[in-house]
Write a structure and sequence with these properties.
Elements lengths: L5 H9 L12 H13 L3 H10 L9 H13 L3 H14 L6 H13 L3 H11 L10
Helix pairs in contact: 2-3, 2-4, 3-4, 4-5, 4-6, 6-7
C-alpha cells in the first residue's frame, strides 16, 4: 500500500489483473485489495472489485461493508452505497459500527444528500456508539 515509488505500487496492483489471482477467495484479501485501490486511487480496479462482489462467496463483515460503502462513494455510486447498507442492515441484520455509519453518512454528504445523512444519523445515533467524529 505505501510503497515509496508509485510505479512500484501500480506494478503490484497489476497482479490483480491476472486471471489466477482470486481477490474474492476470502474477506481479508478482498478488504486489502479495496484498501490498496482506495489509497492508490486506482478506480478502474476498484470498480472491478465492487462489480465482482455480488457474485462472490465473500461473507462481508461490518468492516467490509464500510469499505464497500466507501468504495461506492468514491466511485460516485450513491445507490450502491444504499444497496450495501440495506444488505448489511435489513437482509443480514448486522448493526453498523461507528466507522461504517460514518462511511455511509460521508457518502450521502458527498452526494449532496445532506437531509438523508442527517436522517440516517438520527435513526442510528442511539444504536451505535460513536467513538469517532462523524
Amino acid at each position: 500500500r505505501k510503497l515509496p515509488d508509485a510505479r512500484d505500487a501500480y506494478k503490484v496492483l497489476g497482479i490483480l489483473d491476472r486471471p489466477d489471482v482470486l481477490i474474492f477467495r476470502d474477506e481479508v484479501v478482498f478488504n486489502t485489495v479495496m484498501d490498496a485501490c482506495i489509497y492508490r486511487r486506482d478506480y478502474k480496479r476498484l470498480s472491478r472489485a465492487i462489480d465482482g462482489y455480488p457474485s462472490s462467496k465473500v461473507r462481508a463483515s461490518v468492516r467490509t461493508y464500510g469499505l464497500l460503502i466507501k468504495c461506492c462513494a468514491i466511485l460516485r455510486r450513491t445507490q450502491g452505497c444504499w444497496n450495501f447498507w440495506d444488505e448489511m442492515v435489513d437482509r443480514r441484520g448486522i448493526i453498523p459500527n461507528d466507522v461504517t455509519l460514518g462511511c455511509m453518512i460521508d457518502a450521502l454528504v458527498e452526494a449532496q444528500r445532506v437531509e438523508d445523512a442527517v436522517a440516517l444519523f438520527r435513526d442510528w445515533k442511539t444504536k451505535v456508539t460513536c467513538d469517532t467524529i462523524i
